[in-house]
Amino acid sequence: MARAATTADAFNAVAEPRRRQILDVLAGGERPVNDVVRELGLAQPQVSKHLRVLREVGAVDVREEGRQRLYRLNGHALKPIHDWVKAYERLWAERFDELDDVLKDLKQKEDDDGSE
Amino acid sequence: MAVSSGTAKVTLPADDQILITREFDAPKHLVYKAFTTPELVRRWWHANRGEMTVAEIDLRVGGKWRYVMVAEGDFEVGFHGEYREIVSNERIVSTEVYEGMPDAEAVNTMTLTEADGRTTLEILVQHASKEHRDAHIESGMEAGMQDAMDLLEEVAASLSS
After folding, report:
1. CA distance B64 to A88
2. Contacts of A16 (CB under 8 A, 6+ apart)
3. Which residues in chain B touch residue A5, judged by CB atoms under 8 angstroms apart?
4. pLDDT: is A89 or A13 the higher one?
5. Smallest Cα–Cα separation from B133: which of B25, B4, B10, B7?
6. Which helix (H) or strand (E) holds B147?
7. At A113, is the pLDDT very low, low, confident or very high (cuts 50, 70, 90)?
């Protein structure tokens, strides 16, 4: 069950839109907290709160460099959710590819009927 | 191969939601028709993962629907639910139960928006709780494991960079 709990936590952590924005910013590489604050246009305490949640589930790592705290993405923690979203996306993508064919036939049929 | 209209986009807008989005090169009344006509649903819903053995649609408020697919290896997956709101060619709200997890009922809202002869489809899956949403995701992770195998390397590569 330990695995399930971790997974659920990662889902929770990345389900929040602001936290997903933070992850997007960090996807570009390691960044000091000020950069994240600037890019999100939020107050620092709010950003720090979100970063803490992300750290708790291991979605981001932090290290000190001089007076700065640098945050970076930890892809490993996000892998379960990333895998699922990709697999689910692929399921629907394949459904919709088939649906494209159905729609093409329906359009053709409508055109044929209309021209009679 | 023709240029694809684009792949499905899946997002998790809230703790208890899943949102699926896709654009189609067809007017919305045809997309609606393809979603609500059993013999048309049978042609696309399987996603090449098996054969659809049941596609029942009683399209009226309070009417029931049920889809069953036999996946490769004789693994049967069934889904059913009830229609709650129907706006022809625009919107369908229905419940959905995965028969492997009968306690976790979701409410799906399908919305069609047309512009210049193209249709944007949105399916919002609203679970009763975050736990149910996560259970859906967990079960999908297991059921989709084989499919996902060839994706793993690609995913791992994109995450490790």
Report:
1. 25
2. A50, A53, B15
3. none
4. A89
5. B10
6. helix B145-160
7. confident
The pLDDT assigned to B139 comes to 63
Asked if this assembly's ipTM is beyond 0.85, the reply is no
Contact residues of A toward B, CB < 8 A: 4, 7-8, 11-12, 14-17, 75-76, 78-104, 106-107, 110
Structure tokens of B49?
A: 């993962």
Test A15 with B15 for CB contact under 8 angstroms.
yes
Domains present along chain A, CATH in parentheses:
2-114 (1.10.10.10)
Q: Which residue has the tokens 């696309």?
A: B44
Which of A10-14, A82-86, B39-43, B139-143 is predicted least confidently?
B139-143
CB neighbour burial string for B79-89, b if at least 16 within 10 angstroms, e if fewer: bbbbbeeeeeb
Instruction: Say yes or no: B51 contacts chain A, CB-CB below 8 A.
Output: no
B49, A53 contact by CB (below 8 A): no
Contact A91 B43 (CB under 8 A): no
* Domain range B9-153, CATH architecture: 2-Layer Sandwich (3.30)
For testing contact with chain B, the best of A1, A9, A30, A92 (most B CBs within 10 A) = A92
